[in-house]
RNA helicase
Amino acid sequence: MSFLSQGFSQDLVKALTEIGYEKLTPVQAKAIPQARRGADILALAQTGTGKTAAFSLPIIQKLIDTPKSKSRFNVRALILAPTRELAEQIANNISDYTKYTSITCTAVFGGKKMSSQEKRLEQGVDILVATPGRLIEHMELNNVSLANLEFLVFDEADRMLDMGFIGAIRVILDDIRTKPQTMLFSATSSAQMNALAADILHKPQRITVTPENSTADTVSHVVYPVDEERKTELLSELIGKKNWRQVLVFVNYKETANQLVKELKLDGIKAVLCHGDKAQSARRRALEEFKEGKARVMVATEVAARGLDIQNLPYVVNYDMPFLAEDYVHRIGRTGRAGQKGNAISFVSREEELTLVQIERLIGQRIHRVQLIGYEPKSRDALLERMHSKPAFSQREGRKNNPTQDQSAAERRARLRRAINNKATKITSLKK
C-alpha cells in the first residue's frame, strides 16, 4: 500500500516522495486510516516501524483541510515524548513532511533556553512536540495555551511511565478542556500503561503489528558470558578483531560511560559520550560524529535508548544489562530498523544472569550464548544450575521504577505543582 493511496494532499505527497517514502509500513497501514477517521488509537509497535509518520501524517492532513489563523501561544496538536532526543527527532520529521505547506511545528525540551522557545510559542504553532517537564514550565509561565487543542499524542508512552512522568502527564491533562483526538503509541505493554490508556482514550482502536514486548526478527541476538572486570577488554577485542564499525554501547551509569570511553581511546578506538550530564549541544555533536563515522563507538546511558535514529546501525552492545527487562527491547530497537539486519550483543556477568533470564522470558526466546576463549567467567556453573532449577529464583521480578506509584494522583499533582511553582517564581524573578 502506497502513500498515494491515502488521499493526502499533493504538497504532503511531494515532501514524502522527496524523503523516499513509498510504501506504508504495517503500523502505518493500520493506524493511518483509523486516525483519518478521527478514532482514538492505542498502538503497540516496536521502535523503527514508522510510528512518527503513522500518527503525524493524519494530523497534518487534518490541519491542512481545516486551516485556522494562528493565535498567540495557541497550539492545535500536542505530541508528548519522554526524551529530548526523541522530541527533536519527531519535530524534525514533521518539519520535513510539512515543508511545502503552511503548517508550523516546534519542539520544547530541557537543555535549551526558555526565552528562545517562548519567542517561537508566542507566534502560535500548529504542532507542538514537547517533553512533559519543559511543557509544564511553559504552561506555568503562560507561554503556551492548550485551550483549543484538537490532537494529543503520547509517543513512547511506556518509557514516559518508566521515567516517572505519570504525575506530569496528569498535570497536563488537567489543563486540557477540549476533547482532542488522542493517540497513544508504545513499544511495550504494562499494567500501568493499560490503566493510563483506559483513562484517557475513548473507545480506542487497538493496533498491534508485532507480538507485545517482542523484538524485530531482523535482529540477531548473542550473549557473551564474562566477568564484570573484563568487559572493557572483551569489547575492545571484539571491535578490533571483528572490525565492527558504528557500535552503540549501553551502560547503566554515567561514571561507567566516562571510564569506558577513556579505556577505548587508550586502545586506539575513537569513542564519544551521550548521557545526562552532557549538554544537549554536546550530545548532538557526539551523535553527528557517530553518524558520520568520525567516531567508531558511542557510549550511552538509558537516556539514548529512545529517540536515536541512526540509519543502518549494525551493532548495539549491552555492556551492562538493563535494570528492567523491557529496556532491553528499547535499547536493541536502535538496530534492525525498517527491515535492515542488526546485531544485539550482551555482556553478562554472573551477577546479571537473573536479568538475562527475565529478558528471555519477556521476548519469548532463548538467546544464543558464545563463550570466547580466554574470557571464561569464574565459578559460573553452580550459579546457573541454581537459577534454572529453582522457580522462586528464576521468577523473581527485576527492579521497578515509580516507587511512589501507590500514592494518589492528587498527592502527586499537588507535589509536582508546588515544585513547579517554586521554579516558576525563580524564573520570573530572574526575568525581572
About this structure: Residues 409-431 form the longest helix (23 residues). Residues 3-208 form a domain with the Rossmann fold fold (CATH 3.40.50.300). The two ends are 56 Å apart (CA to CA). The longest strand covers residues 219-225.
